[in-house]
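Work Package 3 (structural annotation) set out to generate three-dimensional models for the target panel prioritized at the project kickoff. During this period the team completed the workflow that converts sequence records into discrete structure tokens, so that structures can be stored uniformly alongside our sequence database. As a representative example, we reproduce one entry of 150 residues exactly as it appears in the project archive.
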Amino acid sequence: MSAENTGTASRALRLIGGSVATLAGLALLAFLLVAGVVVWVFGVALPRHQHAIDDESLAVARGFADRSQQRLVSAVADGELTDAEVTAVVGTMWTDERSADRWGVTTRYPAGSKDVCFRFDIALPLGPGARVTHTELPDCPLIGPHPGAS
């Protein structure tokens, strides 16, 4: 083999080696770019989107509680409130506490990634003008299907 052929072969090998190194570098850069996008989507974009969904779901649950309060006011106007009427207003998942001057109904509504609970306080005696208020609870107590709900 002549010196000229050896130089040409050496130059060809360097060119091929440089091309392979360039391709490997580009592949690594593409991988890092895709990995960066995936990290951004799962670390920033999706949590931000989930937060927005949770905020909207909480607003919907609060609106539902407002409407439930008005429906309870209508239900107690006749001087009577049955378990079936409460279930028709707040759903089957509720608990209650009764005392001489009030009836408390606690219920849970879905609100995105977590639930939100409201307590409805119904002043006794029942009848026209009976006062019904509701309060959003900071934590949800354990609430299962009410025994009177069917």
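Strands lie at 94-98, 102-111, 114-123, 132-136.
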